[in-house]
Design brief:
With 91 residues, this protein is mainly α. Helix content is 57%, strand content 0%. The protein is built from three helices and no strands. The protein is elongated, with a radius of gyration of 18 Å.
Length: 91
Amino acid sequence: MKENKREQEMDMREMVDKVKKGEPLYGESELTPYMQGVAARNSRYTGVWLYVVPWFNFVNHNQHGVDTAKYYRQAERELEAERAEKAGQTL
């Protein structure tokens, strides 16, 4: 198994578990959505400019450029499988 595949599977497991629990995928933030957007925009290319100005982003925001629908679809599949399994056991 390649390392990246392992990381993808771990990410999927973590995020699907959060969806099932009803938790926000990327945690909670005390900042307004506007300020979260500012932080995301400021940190987008920080790796490029790291040698000029070290700029680190410690803001919790949900703008990661990831299609989060895949986590919700997987959670629905798993919840449906769990329901079907329980229904099969009660028959």
